[in-house]
Design brief:
Elements (H helix, E strand, L loop, with lengths): L6 E2 L22 E13 L14 H4 L14 E7 L2 E5 L10 E14 L1 E10 L2 E11 H4 L16 E10 L24 H10 L4 E6 L20 H10 L3 E7 L5 E3 L2 E3 L7 H8 L5 E5 L9 H10 L6 E9 L2 E9 L43 E3 L1 E6 L3 H14 L28 H12 L6 E7 L5 H4 L10 E5 L8 H16 L4 E5 L20 H7 L4 E3 L3 E4 L3 E5 L5 H4 L7 E6 L5 H4 L6 H14 L12 H19 L15 E3 L5 E3 L22 H4 L1
Parallel strand pairs: 1-5, 9-10, 10-13, 16-21, 19-20
Antiparallel strand pairs: 2-5, 3-4, 3-6, 6-7, 8-17, 8-18, 9-14, 11-12, 14-15, 15-17, 18-24, 19-22, 22-23, 23-24, 25-26
Protein name: Phospholipase D
Function: Hydrolyzes glycerol-phospholipids at the terminal phosphodiesteric bond.
Family: Belongs to the phospholipase D family. C2-PLD subfamily.
Length: 698
């Protein structure tokens, strides 16, 4: 033994470890490892800087994160696990990309597993994130002897994916202008609900859905007379009758309950009990999953988690045609639930579609009483489709949640409840994870349109990890979309500090932040009371906000994060709402790879969104960091606010309004004169402090 390796490490059981990807291309035997393991963890070299590697906002936050981390690089440590059980853990070495632990473990084991895992992690204030994994086959350990050598680690980032980006549930041809990309390519505007309908229709083995709300009578295709009568519930039942495994995992709203044959609607109208009742007795398996507290919660904390926090993940996983009689998995991830009130287009019509596509899909929780003549609440959202190795991370997320969820009634007694899940490796014509990784990694360098994608989950607080990092040092433009954006969270504070830093350094930096005019509900009533008097103004002035439900970020037109993760503590803390998001970029369309401004799919997506919000595309929009662009967007926003706020009824070309606030030279914020309250419904634009429990709102 090396005399320098003398420091003893912790060898006590410390929970479970989930490795979200394979460490080898080989097929390994599941063998019993019984006896003692004599383990030395010496060092790691050239670890990535986890405050920059995923490149979501490293340049944005780098220097200012020094309030929490002195140098802003990785804080690595290692866990040793077998069969998912952690058997040893090193200490954390702060701010070091070449850590030297010199730790010894002597651990008794009696585990059946294919591999022993050494998981290198980055410790942070928001939790830990996997840097890489080393796997040593159990078969090799059973040979005995000393196994002393350097091991390369496997990264979690997935290469060789294809990604389709969607804005809103539907897009009608010609609704948005054509957008040219590099290499004379055109940006293709996707049709999200159409694609979901087709994907489910063409599934042969499995359809797995998660949602905050999944409603059986929603229609995914509204513009085709031959398909517009087909509801989601009928589609899923039909696939299940064909032998497709259909599993639906929906948040169990604690305020909605079923008493004998009577169902009470919950406060949030998710219709979870209605959905469960519709599929009961069919071949579609539905689990209503309550949000329960974790191991870190006290008894009161667990009760609080179940009462006010939710499962917010929205995913659809299906098998699809891969050619040559093979099947593959594809997944949809984002902010859109398959429920009522979500179908919309970039036009966001308030009245025009009330007698057509929204005839049976009226949604406006800001209004009570008679809805006759009132506008619908328009819905803006972001979503994506992923085709490639990353889908298996999303599949793992579903499998973990399904197995952890509590079945109802007699199903609780079924020991083999996990039999509902299809074992992908046992279906011969479905491409497995190892084959998908191997094929896509080999083709990644040659495919100009390939994507590198990583999944973030806030079940383990990783959703926030995507946001405090950046695609390259010193980004020039960051664009956020968020339903709620709370200053109690570190991210908004860091943006403000970064802006101040850039001003002082005389460097260009721009942050565009898009929010709904107010959170969903009556803007002047904490108890969401509906005062019918104000509805008359809505009918007269024919105006209403577009509900920005989307959650996402675009950095420098080369990196995108998308999913259901608000920039607030509910989504970011990791112990409140459960979220899922993805971060992605095209390696052939980055500033570094092109030595110029990239015009790939992410650029096209951002320009398409700007065309929707501003009603036009102008030359300066190609340079969003420029002062010319900032001033032009501000002018358009101010003009749109004036047009929106006056009582004269006019057709608005753009939807993006400058929020009616002003900031004086001393930094004091106040409403614009004459704009102290929201039009029609009232409510102060700067809000009002309330004694309502803080966890509900941040």
């Amino acid at each position: 033994m090396d005399d320098s390796l003398s420091m003893e490490g912790s060898q006590h059981g410390q929970g479970t470890e989930f490795v979200p990807f394979q460490t080898t291309q080989e097929s390994l035997e599941n063998l019993l490892l019984h006896g003692h393991l004599d383990i030395w963890v010496k060092e790691a070299k050239k670890l990535p800087n986890m405050d920059q590697i995923h490149k979501t906002m490293s340049g944005l936050f780098g220097g200012r994160l020094s309030m929490l981390k002195s140098h802003g690089t990785s804080d690595p440590y290692v866990t040793v696990s077998i069969a998912g059980a952690i058997i040893a853990r090193t200490f954390v070495i702060p701010d070091n990309e070449n850590p030297m632990w010199m730790q010894h473990f002597f651990v008794p084991v009696a585990h059946t597993a294919p591999e022993l895992h050494f998981v290198v992690k980055d410790d942070d204030v928001v939790g830990s994130e996997i840097i890489g994994v080393v796997g040593i086959p159990t078969k090799q350990l059973l040979l005995g002897g000393e196994n002393r050598r350097d091991f390369p680690y496997n990264e979690r980032k997935r290469k060789g994916n294809k990604v389709t980006l969607y804005q809103d549930a539907h897009y009608e041809d010609g609704m948005l202008p054509d957008i040219k990309l590099d290499y004379d390519k055109d940006f293709v505007h996707g049709k999200f609900w159409h694609d979901v309908f087709n994907a489910i229709s063409n599934a042969r083995h499995l359809v797995y859905l998660t949602g905050w709300s999944v409603v059986h009578n929603v229609r995914l295709v509204c513009d085709d007379p031959n398909l517009s009568s087909v509801t989601l519930g009928d589609l899923l039942k039909g696939k299940a009758q064909e032998g497709v495994r259909v599993l639906v995992l929906v948040w169990d709203d604690p305020t909605s309950r079923k008493f004998f044959h009577r169902t009470t609607e919950g406060m949030l109208a998710t219709e979870d009990e209605v959905t469960y009742k519709f599929f009961k007795g069919s071949s579609v398996h539905v689990v209503l999953c309550p949000r329960s507290g974790g191991k870190g919660h006290s008894l009161i904390g667990k009760q609080e988690a179940g009462a006010i926090y939710t499962h917010h993940q929205k995913t659809v996983i299906v098998d699809a045609d891969a050619g040559e009689h093979k099947r593959k998995l594809i997944a949809f991830v984002g902010g859109l639930d398959l429920c009522k009130g979500r179908y919309d287009t970039p036009e966001h019509s308030l009245f025009r579609t009330l007698q057509t596509v929204h005839d049976d899909d009226y949604h406006n929780p800001n209004i009570a009483g008679s809805m006759n003549g009132c506008p619908r609440e328009s819905w803006h959202d972001l979503h994506c489709q992923i085709d490639g190795p990353t889908v298996y991370d999303i599949l793992t997320n579903f499998q973990e949640r399904w197995l952890k969820s509590s079945p109802r009634g007699i199903k609780k007694l079924k020991r083999a409840y996990d039999d509902h899940l299809i074992h992908i490796d046992k279906v011969p014509n479905i491409i497995g994870q190892l084959d998908a990784n191997h094929t896509c990694n080999n083709n990644d360098d040659d495919d100009m349109e390939s994507w590198h994608v990583q999944v973030f989950r806030s079940i383990d607080s990783n959703s926030v990890k995507g946001f405090p990092k950046d695609p390259k040092d010193g980004p020039q433009m960051v664009r956020f979309f968020s339903l709620t954006y709370c200053a109690n969270n570190l991210i908004p504070t860091e943006i403000a500090l970064k802006i101040a830093e850039k001003i002082k350094a005389d460097e260009r930096f721009v942050a565009y932040i898009v929010l709904p005019m107010w959170p969903e509900g009556d803007p002047k009533s904490l108890a969401m009371q509906r005062i019918l008097y104000w509805q008359a103004f809505l009918k007269k002035n024919r105006r209403f906000m577009i509900y920005v439900h989307s959650k996402g970020m675009i950095v420098d037109d080369e990196y995108v994060i998308m999913g259901y993760a608000n920039i607030n503590q509910r989504s970011m803390e990791g112990t409140r709402d459960t979220e899922i998001a993805m971060g992605a970029y095209q390696p052939h369309y980055t500033w570094a790879s092109r030595n110029s401004r990239p015009h790939g799919q992410i650029y096209g997506y951002r320009m398409s969104l700007w065309a929707e919000h501003l009603g036009t595309i102008e030359g300066c929009f190609m340079r969003p960091e420029s002062l010319e662009c900032v001033r032009r967007v501000r002018i358009l926003g101010e003009q749109n606010w004036i047009q929106f706020s006056i009582d004269e009824v006019t057709e608005m070309k753009g939807h993006l309004l400058k929020y009616p606030l002003k900031v004086d030279r001393w930094g004091r914020v106040s409403p614009l004169p004459g704009s102290e309250k929201f039009p029609d419904l009232g409510g102060k634009v700067m809000g009002t402090f309330s004694g309502i429990q803080e966890n509900l709102t941040i």
